[in-house]
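Q: Protein A?
A:
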Amino acid sequence: MKTDYPRYIISFSVLLLLTWILSCSGRPGKKSVAGIQPATVLNEEVSSKLIKIISPDENAGFKLHDPLKVVLSLEDKKKVPDSVAVYFNGTAVTTIKSEPWEYSIPSMFTITTGRKSLKVTAFKGGKPQNTIIRFIIIFSDVIPAKNGYKVIHTYLHNRDAFTQGLVYDNGELYEGTGQETGSTLREVELETGKVIRQHNLDNSLFGEGITLYHDRIYQVTWQNKVGFVYNKSDFKLINKIYYPTQGWGLTTMDDKIVMSDGTNILYFFEPEMFTVVSRIEVYDNEKKVDQLNELEYINGEIWANIWMTDLIARIDPVSGKVLAYIDLNGILPKSDRNEETDVLNGIAYDKIGKKIFVTGKRWPKLFEIKVIE
């Protein structure tokens, strides 16, 4: 049954309710009513900024093994933090608890090149007040040497091969080629350039670098984020591998497989599960060195073709710095070039004979070279 109450009774009831809230709380809105919790009011002191970074500047440059001085300042001298935590590239470095609000991060932290994060967090009353993140760049501490070359021997090479990966093993060359509808894995006779065996990739795939790990050949693709593992003896597919970036070059370094993706980053994979275990950013003394392409591990260094150039970068795999550039300008004579001749790409190393081989995409020749330092 519907019941109509007089308006004055309703108004009086509302007045009594408001009086009860005010008498119990002293301030309206603080008391929970009918299970509804009051909104949280932020403490002004907790939400205020306490510190700022004076130095280093954003994207400031440093050299490998340089100490990194961090200078902070209080936003308001009347609001002093209990402490300030300092982090470098995700690692806790120190805690500053009083003036001077500065600290020199030791050189033991600046041991790899690349873009690194600097984070400082101010605390007050056991709570973080404000956090500032700034990025700095660590460059190489050496000027790269400039290396030349001498051609020791010239071999025939299949001009149709759009060379993306090159491996030498026990007298034979293994070559990965690219292009849609034309990507392959090949075993090639060094002396003649004759293709002994060939496995064709699906037409939807653009083949890229290859490397040899024990008795298995790894091959990646450009933009499909999938690669393949084959038996070296018969090119039988063993497994597929997956990765989150583009695939460019591959090489094997001890028990890791190293991959480039066209940037200045090299990724180190555990071969069995093909998971990334570490990475380095490649820099020389002035800039990042990107467009790293085909790779080869030679005498403790990673050598990388730099796409669209005649340069090979010799990279320290521990720090990421470029030790030297090999300039192969003019190695393929103009008489051997045509409109389909593409860029230098392909490095292979004979560990036993200490021989270095290089070629390019759709080059009619492959060269054994000696590096002139």
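Q: Protein B?
A:
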Amino acid sequence: MLKRLTPPFLDNVKPPKAGRDDYTDMGQEGLILRVSHIGKKRWSVVYRITGQGGFNPKTGRELKGPQQRLSIGQYPQIGLKDAREKAEHIRTLADAGKDPKELRIAEVHAKQAAAANAAKAAEREDEERHRNSVAAIAEELLAVARVELRRPRNLEGTLTKHILPNFGDQQLSDITHVEINKLLTTYKTEGAFGTAREVKKHISKLMTFGLQHGYIDRNPMSGVLTLPKSDPNKEKKERVFSTDHLKALWNHAGSVGYPYGTLVQLVILTGCRVHEMEQATWEEIDFEERALVLGPQRSKIKDTVMIPFTDRAWALIESLPRFNQGNFMFSTSGGTKPVNSRTYMLKLMNDGLPENMREWSMHDLRHSYRTKLAQLGVRSDIAERCLGHKVQGIEGVYNHHHYLDEKRVASELYSDFVGGFHE
């Protein structure tokens, strides 16, 4: 049906009882509105393409091909004005010898290609963002630390528990000192000063690593809060063992035996940091000097440290099992891994102590060791070297002597004191 289509007609036209009705627009050649019996109204355009009918043998002019139809959408999503403009465009293309269907297919393919390229670009961007994310760079740092430190437990724990949950998905370059301060302030408010210091220390390591490897061009740590060494409002606890307390711990550790009991006894006798003995390997034992030799990668002062064993300590060393699978001296896995359950070790030790002696930490053993050395008259510089501390000033810079004999004499004095313990 030929009809001059208008908006009121389009809105009110009634669908046929069956089949469909076609209304050819008098206002635009070739434009048709098809109304189905269910009320759907769809636009289409009829056209003939110049050149598809060959040539007129007399005039040589190109002839138009058979009539074709192309759907251009539904009403009212496409209004009358837009439908007429689309119809005009399609017929102009057909008159110029261009196939509107092929052009539409090419347009669809172009859009699909553009979408695919955009998706690939977004994927590459996501990959690049992931490579530069805190989580990815933290994993790189840990991979290096595992080689250099073998078991960077403190770094790994702090990253996993505190840093990655807060910053893991962010770009390292996007993190500011303001965000870091906000996190540290949260810990300070909760009274977790130790956690705040650990978080700050390991964020600083992460930022330094990022700066060295080109992930960031400036380090935001310069604007980070200065943290107190401890909670200024917290009452300080006595960190030196009484003789009775140390005696009870020594004897119970002896009854527990290998690995945890022997480990605790050696920490008591040497005053070393618990992880230094905990992660010791037989390769680090100098059998001629009877000492544990920690290389720069293992010692806290980043320099070689020699920890002498007294006769009593050496007897414990000789009692340790030797494994075929691995070299770790204190192990529950055949020497392939060191013991690593500090919580279990403390529980094991506390189970054999009176209730009033269970408030202590492994670090307290170093305080007790250092205090007793002072009481025994050991020179302060030797006592500090016994603890593996770096001597400050010019002496610490230029003097590389290990003072092994002097440290052994001091350790023997302490060992004799411990030797006075008995059940």
